[in-house]
């Protein structure tokens, strides 16, 4: 299982695409770390995702608000679900309660959520915003 940035993930908004590229690189490193049972990289990635969610989702939500994007609330709810997933992972890591099965599930969830979110919600949002510009 490998994930790489490609043109199909582009939204056409430079700052968003740059942040997505970095996210895809980190998710791929996370996938490899899970496959190699590298708990240090797993923990580093979860820590990275905490900061990433604040920075990136804030940037996306600001763009949506400034452009009066009608799908803002639904999109923000999707971001909240990701934040909750990362929070639960961090909490489990801190409490040393994360099993191998849970780590594999988290890998699959992060990977599928990220690609699906970019390909659907972010693309729809940026297409509608780009039409206004």
From TrEMBL:
Domain of life: Bacteria
GO molecular function, one term: metal ion binding
Hemerythrin-like domain ranges (all copies): 11-127
Keyword check for Oxidoreductase: no
Annotated InterPro entries: Haemerythrin_Fe_BS, Hemerythrin, Hemerythrin-like, Hemerythrin-like_sf, Hemerythrin_metal-bd
Entry's transmembrane regions: none
Keyword set, alphabetical order: Iron, Metal-binding
Family in the record: Belongs to the hemerythrin family.
PANTHER family: BACTERIOHEMERYTHRIN
Protein's name in the database: Hemerythrin-like domain-containing protein
Protein source organism: Desulfuribacillus alkaliarsenatis
Lineage summary: Bacteria, Bacillati, Bacillota, Desulfuribacillia, Desulfuribacillales
